[in-house]
Write a structure and sequence with these properties.
Layout (H helix, E strand, L loop, with lengths): L7 H89 L5 H32 L5 E4 H11 L1 H7 L2 E5 L3 E4 L1 H17 L7 E8 L3 E8 L31 H11 L4 E5 L5 E8 L7
Parallel strand pairs: 2-4
Antiparallel strand pairs: 1-3, 4-5, 5-7, 6-7
Helix pairs in contact: 1-2, 2-6, 3-5, 5-6
GO molecular function, one term: phosphorelay sensor kinase activity
Enzyme class: transferase
Organism: uncultured bacterium FLS18
Amino acid sequence: MQSHVVPEQQVQRLQSRVAALEQLLEVHERTVLEQSDKLARTLRQLEERAAALAERTEELARSNRELQEFAHAASHDLQEPLRAVSGFCQLLRDRYSGKLDVQADEFIGFAVDGAHRMQKLINDLLAYSRVGAQGDASEPTDSSAIFDQAVTNLHAAIQESGAKVTQTGLPIVTADPSQLIQLLQNLIGNAIKFRGERTPEIHVEASRKVDDWLFSVRDNGIGIEPRHAERVFLIFQRLHAQTKFPGTGVGLAICKKIVERHGGRIWIEPRSEDGTVVLFTIPTKDGDQS
């Protein structure tokens, strides 16, 4: 039987290879451990951030609820004393108008007018607070019928201004019907109010995009400067004197709140020389129809 002897050089080469593999394995294991530690730290940081974000979201939601409750309660509680003030001011004017001097009549007029404007402000603040607190459930809603109802509600303003209000392509969407009426009524009413010398022309239309319906309300009124395009959606923000265009500055804030409650967004494309286009979206849902 013949024996085979492994040369010494071959043994050394094998030992070197084994040592190199052991070293490579050690480096690999160390790298894996380092990467595992880094991944674990990253996961912990992400979990901490997610927890902080959830806590912050809950704080904001709670703050928003408390603010709505406060606005509703404050507005409601102000109604009774304001009615008393308004009633006595009206009584003063009815009984003593023309019996005192001209300045006294003027002061009484200021008081009556201030009480009326305060009543309108409180009513609008209540309407704003109710958007989130007392909204109805969304359901398939014919926005063409909603448009017709909004136009009917604005009959007096349309007749007085001679406005031409039209629509095309309004679909069935998933929305709160009463709030959609309020939304279109506010936008069309604004277009009538902020008119120029020309007869108001307001057109409402909608088109389907990938994930939502895009509505537009286009008018030929006095327009809005681009620098005010975001400001007009803030509550109590007004761009014009009360004597020129009466109002409280709450209407567009209500519109924004309604659209956001439905998961959409609203913005303005100013056309300072030829009116304004207000656009808003409502997400598409199963059952929506064009």
